[in-house]
Design brief:
Elements lengths: L8 E2 L2 H9 L8 E5 L5 H7 L4 E5 L3 H10 L6 E4 L14 E4 L6 H9 L7 E7 H7 L6 H7 L3 E8 L5 E2 L6 E8 L10 H13 L5 H4 L6 H11 L12 H12 L7 H8 L2 H10 L8 E2 L2
Parallel strand pairs: 1-10, 2-3, 2-5, 3-4, 5-6
Antiparallel strand pairs: 1-8, 6-9, 7-9
């Protein structure tokens, strides 16, 4: 059986209730449940928030949800692929056991949209959570998230919390929108293109990756200011240093060559999204009733 078709079901509704109660979700919130499955998250949320938007692509599960929730007026059920659905115009939050085979695409849609959620709680593979937090091979996605969101693992599930037990570790990842972003809205698109361009370069060292953006003297000046190793790899660079690198790039905007550099990195973020959307699919889970 293809790993992308396999499912694991959480078997403790009281654990779900405890986790939601420990979240920031309250009676004034609109909350998305992406991949609502058999509805255990949506049902518990309906008692704790203003409105639940339960999104379920599977037609059979959708019919069951419609029947199950027909008398619960604050649950809206949508039979559609989340990736083709519109996000709410108002403030909203997310609490969801998202399909693991769509993790990257869902992250991209939620957090790189015009109206990202105020707070999100996602049950995902631990490996993916660490990647979004900047560990392992997650440098780029982490750099794109951290100026605008705080990421933390709130709960490590036991494999026996699921039936059948998964072969991977699963966690509850919180992604909370920062009240004061580290990058202004005016700089947002440039920041995305700048970081995407550097990370997508096929070179081992930072020096080689930025050689078309900075003159040698500028690069060594940056390294001195930010305490960077000129011969180091990008995996050794802290987020604060990355942020300093971008701020230094902005300081060069009066140079005659700056517009050429802007053209060079243009559409780099779109290229990143295209690459992420075409990556192999992995395991997914669903909550059991």
């Amino acid at each position: 059986m293809d790993i992308s078709d396999s499912q694991n079901f959480l078997n403790d509704k009281w654990l779900v209730l405890e986790l939601i109660k420990k979240s920031s979700i309250n009676k004034n919130d609109i909350v998305l449940d992406i991949g609502a499955g058999e509805g255990i998250i949506s049902l518990i949320l309906s008692d704790l928030c203003k409105k639940v938007i339960a999104i379920e692509l599977d037609n059979n599960l959708f019919i069951k949800l419609k029947k199950k929730f027909e008398k619960i007026i604050n649950i809206e059920i949508i039979n559609r692929d989340f990736l083709s659905s519109s996000l709410p115009d108002l403030d909203y939050k997310v609490f969801s056991n998202i399909p693991f085979n769509q993790t990257s695409s869902i992250i991209n849609k939620l957090f790189f949209s015009q109206n990202p959620p105020q707070d999100s709680y996602l049950i995902i593979q631990k490996e993916a959570a660490l990647r979004f937090m900047g560990e392992g091979e997650g440098t780029l996605v982490s750099l794109l998230l951290k100026p605008f969101f705080n990421l933390s693992i709130l709960y490590n599930f036991k494999r026996t919390d699921f039936t059948p037990p998964p072969s991977v570790d699963i966690v509850l990842l919180r992604i909370q929108k920062l009240q004061c972003p580290l990058i202004s809205q005016d700089e947002l698109q440039l920041y995305k293109n700048f970081m995407s361009f550097i990370i997508l370069q096929q070179s081992s060292s930072l020096k080689k990756r930025v050689r078309r953006l900075f003159m040698p003297a500028e690069f060594y000046s940056i390294c001195k200011i930010l305490n960077l190793n000129p011969k180091g790899t990008i995996k050794k660079i802290a987020f604060e240093q990355w942020l300093g690198l971008f701020k230094y790039f902005l300081s060069l905007k009066n140079q005659k060559t700056f517009n050429n550099k802007i053209k060079l990195i243009q559409n780099s973020f779109k290229k990143y999204l295209s690459i992420k959307d075409n990556q192999p699919k992995v395991r997914k889970t669903r909550f059991k009733r």
